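Researcher: Quick one. two chains, 657 residues in total.
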Amino acid sequence: MPQYKAMEHTALAQPFRRSAAAHALGQNIGLILVCILLIASILAYCGIYYAAQERLPGGFEITSTVNNTMPLVLAALAQTVVVLTRGLDLSVGGMMDLSNAIAAVTLSASLGSMVFWSVAILALGALLGLLNGVLVAIGRLQPILVTLATLSIFQGLAIRVLPQPGGAVPEAYTAALVSTKAPYALLYVIAFGVLWSAFRRTRLGVSILAVGNDAQAARAHGIDLIRTRIAAYTLSGMLAAAAGLFLAANATAGDATTGNGYTLSSIVAVVLGGVSLFGGRGSAIGAMLGAFVSSMIVNILFFSHIDPLYQAFYEGLFLVLAVVLAEAVGRLVRKAS
Amino acid sequence: MFARLFHSAEARRILYAYIAALALFIIGQIVRPGFLSPASVESVLLIASFVGLVAAGQTFVILIGGIDLSVPWVLNAAAILLATSSLGENARTAQALLITLGMGALVGLANGVGIAFLGVPAVVMTLAANGIMEGLTLGLSGGMTCESCASYAPPLVQALTHSKFLGIPSALWLWFAITLLVSIALSATRFGRHTYAIGTNARASFLAGVNVTATTVILYMLSGIFSALAGIMLVSFGGQAALGMGDPYLFQSIAAVVIGGVYILGGRGHYIGSVAGAICLVTLISVLLALNMPEYGRNIIYGVIILLLLLFYGREEEES
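Model:
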C-alpha cells in the first residue's frame, strides 16, 4: 500500500548500469527467496520428522507429500496467470469443485472415457475462464467482483452435479496423475516449469506480463489489452479445471466442496512464490515452489505435535512473516546492487 | 455538508441500489404474498443490519482501496469472547463488551500496522489475520469444548437486542444510529475528507500533508470494531456462539459495499449506498429462500444477479 513512498529508485538515483549478475539477482529475487524458503522448510521438516520417527522421511512420505501438493500446484499456476495481469481469480476454488464433481460422476475405467472426459472438463474450464475474461475485459468489471460472483455460480453448478460426496475415480486415472508408487507427479511440475519458461517468451506470455506491469504502456506498444486479459482468464480456468482433476485423482472420489479452500491457499502460494499482487512481476515456477512451501509448513506443524486447532494461527503468522521478510530482503538487495 | 453525497454519478448509483432493493421487495411480494408484511420486512431488515454493520467497516477500508478479509473470524471470535468473558452474567456485561470491542480494535490495529507501516498488501495481511484469529479462536476454546464456551450472552444484552422502541427493534435503531455516525464521519469531517483523498491518490494526499499511515491504521481499526460489533449482535440475538458463524459475512459484506456503488479501488462511494446494498442482498437471499430454491440454485442465481447488477452500474468509466 505505501505506494506513495515508492520513489526510491528513480533513474537519477542510478546513473550507471548495474552488472549483469546484480541485474539477474534483482530480477529474480522472488524466485531465489522462495527457493531458500523451500530448502529451509524441507530441512526443518526432515529434522522434526527425524526427531519424531528416528529416521528420515522415505519414499512413501515424499510421494504422498508431492501428490497432496499437486492440486495446489495447479491452482497456484491458475492464480499466477491472472495475478500477473494485475487481476485476482477468486473462482479458482469453485472451478476446482466443478471439475472435481464432473470427474467423479463421469470417469469410467476405459481409456477412451478417461481421455474424453478429461479433455471435456479442461475445455469446460477454459470456457468458464473465458466467461470471467470477457466480463473483466469487455464488461470492464473489477476482477475481484466478477470472480466472486462466478465463484458462487461454479459452486452451485458443482453441488448440482454432485449433491453428496461420492462417485468414484478409476484406479488407472489416479495412477496416471498421482502415482502412489513414486513421486512421478514431480515430472508434471518439471514439465510445467519448462512450458512456463517457453510460454513467457511467446507473444502472449510477454503481453500478460506487460499488461500487468503498465497497461497504458502496453497498449501504446500495440498490445491488445482485451485479448490478453481474456486469454489469461481462459488459461486460468483451464488450469483450475486441471487442479480439480488432480484433486479427484488424489481423493479417488468426488466432493463438491473440497475445492473451496483452494481459492485462498492459491493466493498464499502465489505470494510465497514471489509473484507480485500488483501484477507484472513473478514467475509460475516461483508459484509452484510456493505451493510446496505451503504444504511443507502443514507437514512441519503436523510433526511438531502442534494442536491441529492452532494450525491456521501458525499458517497466518508464517504468511505475514514470509511476506515482510521477503519485502525487506528484496529492498536490501535492490539497494545494494 | 453532504455535498459529496449529491455528486451526480455517485448519487445515481446509490439511488439505483435503493430502487433495486425496492424492486426485490416487490418481486418477493409477487412470488410469495405476505413478503411485504411488516413482520417479514422487519425480519429482512434485521438480518440486513448484521451485514450492514460489517459493511460499515468494509466501506471504510474499500474507500482507501483496501479490503478486510479478516471479517469472518474476528466476528466469530467476538461472538465467542462475549459469551465466555461474561459467562452469561449481567454483572460482567460492561467489561465483556469492552474486551470484545477491544479485541476487534486490536486485530484492526495489527492489520493497519502491517499494511501501512510494513507494506504488506491488504489482501495478504487481512487474509493472514483471519487465519491467525481462526487458529486462536479454535485453539483457545479447544474447538468450542471449553467450559465457558457453552455460556450465553448476558441476559441484559439479549433482552436489549430483542427489545423494541417505538415499535421498531432496537437492533435497527442501532444500525440507524451507526449509519448516521458513519455518514457524518465520511461527509462532514476532516477524517472523511482524508479517507476519500487517500483512496483517490495516496501519494498526492501524502504530499498534501495527509497523515496517510495514521488514517489507514484507524480505518482498519474501525473495520475490526464493526466486525466485533456484528459478532456481539449476532450472539445476543441467537443466544449462543457457534463455530463458522462469521463465514457468510465476508463475501456478503463485500458484495453489499459494491452493490451500494462504492468503487472497489477506492475514492468513490458512500456508506448510504452500502446500506442499500446490504438490504438488496439480504432481500435477494430471502426471496430465493421463500421460493424454496435448493442450495445449488440459490448459489447460481445469487452469482448471476450480482453479475447483472455489476454490468448494470458497476462498470468502470474509462479503460484502464
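Chain A has a mean pLDDT of 85.
Researcher: Thanks, that's what I needed.
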